[in-house]
Amino acid sequence: MLVNIHKHRISLLLFFAALVTGNVNSQVWTLQQCIDTALVNNKNLQISRNSSEIGDQRHKEARATLIPKVNVNADYRYYANLPYQFMPLSAFGGPDGQFKEVQFGVPHNINANLQLTMSLYNPQVYGAIQSTKIGAEISGLQVQKTTEQIFFEISNLYYNAQILNSQRAFIDSNLINNKKLLKNLQLLKEQLLAKGADVSKVQLQIDQLTNQGEIIGNKYEQVINALKFIMGISGERHIGIEPLSLYHPDNRDYKNASTIEFRLSEIQSKLLVSELRTLKNSRLPSLALYGFYGVSGFGYDKQPYEFLKFYPIGYGGLQLTYPLFNGSITQRKINQKKLEVRNSELQQSLITEQTNMQIDNARQQRLVAQHSLETTRSQIALGQSVYGQTILQQAQGTAGLPDVLLADNALREAQQNYLTAVVEYLKADLELKKLTGNILNK
């Protein structure tokens, strides 16, 4: 029955921790509210989403290369000196092997035309479309990875803030006990039943607890500021957190799912295979359709033959391009890409083995932390019981101040061990969620 009473005391103590140490005007935020706010306001996540949109636009850009292209061209030239051509004299009845320079044309030349080009088959274009599609998938996974990282960081900070709040609550409780003890000793000293050194020892312990409370309070504010920064809200805004009640682990296990890191390595390997295929296909010929229509204008601006006349021109055709030989550059690129693909396959295997090892370690660490939680929880109840009994014995004169201080130190050590066990369990549980791909699952 005594143990149950002390458990309720601990729960009440931790529940009122936020009220005792927090800002009365602070809004209490749950962990889920902090996460939801960060998913909207966090700038790193916004950058990641923009990068994903850039990947989508690149894929659309690559696909747009298959759409016919139409260009309008216009050109005007005025020849101050008309170009020369050499005419063979034999064309006019002269001797063979002799030539005469002649200027052809008119000074004003105008050209205006429409040019149509359309790729019918180009392995490089199709390879780029496939690669940008895979790149867009990678960008999407990067958004998920950033989301997981934000979830992980906020959860860690929130848990740390709860632990620090609980530490302050324990210190406040210990201060109350020590101040009561100091008051009793001061009364006994006035009655010459206690030594001044005993009063000084308790006063020193109170000063130490007060200093520890200030240090923990400063750490708490730093953690809250970091939490607000990741959430993307103003640093001047006052927020509070839910108090950490007497913690009971749920002991549930998580099914292994594909982690973001493994899925990223899979898609990156897929991208390398696509790039290798594109390099191999670059040896194939490409075929394009083109068309041309326009007018050519010729003008002369001197008397008595001033004129400006336009003549139409138009044609269409097919263009076949075949890379016959480029100095074995393509083959060297293919060899490099094959090695990159092989390294990617090895990286996937390495990630799988490493993740399995980390999952086993996280499960073991969580199990150890769970046992430690159960042990330290009972130690706190026992420490409070021993402290209470020692205080009664001291009042009855059957226990001295050293016994009281020893019981107080034992209680504080049990409290710290309990908080350490809670931290270790929460971190191990969070790490296990991340490693098994369940960090975003509620």
Task: Give a brief rundown of this model.
The protein is 64% helix and 16% strand.
Please, how many domains?
1
Whole-number mean pLDDT? 85
Radius of gyration of CA atoms, rounded to a whole number: 41 Å
Tell me the CATH architecture: Up-down Bundle
**CATH topology annotation:** Outer membrane efflux proteins (OEP)
CATH class: Mainly Alpha
Binned, the helix content reads: 55-70%
Within the largest sheet, what's the order of strands? 2-5-7-8
Task: Report the principal-axis shape.
Answer: elongated
- SS class: alpha+beta
Low-confidence runs of at least 5 consecutive residues: 1-24
Number of strands: 8
Distance between the termini: 36 Å
Biggest sheet character: 4 strands, antiparallel
Strand content: 15-25%
The CATH superfamily title: Outer membrane efflux proteins (OEP)
Query: What is the helix/strand order?
Result: HHEHHEEEEHHEHEEHH
Number of helices: 9
Walk me through what this model shows:
The chain has 9 helices and 8 strands. The protein is α+β, with helices and mostly antiparallel strands and 442 residues long. The chain has a single domain (2-72, 122-435), classed as Up-down Bundle (Outer membrane efflux proteins (OEP)), CATH 1.20.1600.10. The strands form 3 sheets. Strands 2-5-7-8 form a 4-stranded antiparallel β-sheet. A two-stranded parallel sheet has the order 1-6. α1 crosses α8, α3 crosses α5 (123-190) and α5 (123-190) runs antiparallel to α7.
What's the topology here?
Blueprint: H1 2-15, H2 17-21, E1 27-29, H3 31-41, H4 43-64, E2 69-78, E3 84-88, E4 99-103, E5 108-121, H5 123-190, H6 196-231, E6 239-241, H7 260-281, E7 286-300, E8 307-321, H8 329-396, H9 401-435
Parallel strand pairs: 1-6
Antiparallel strand pairs: 2-5, 3-4, 5-7, 7-8
Helix pairs in contact: 1-8, 3-5, 4-5, 5-6, 5-7, 5-9, 7-8, 8-9
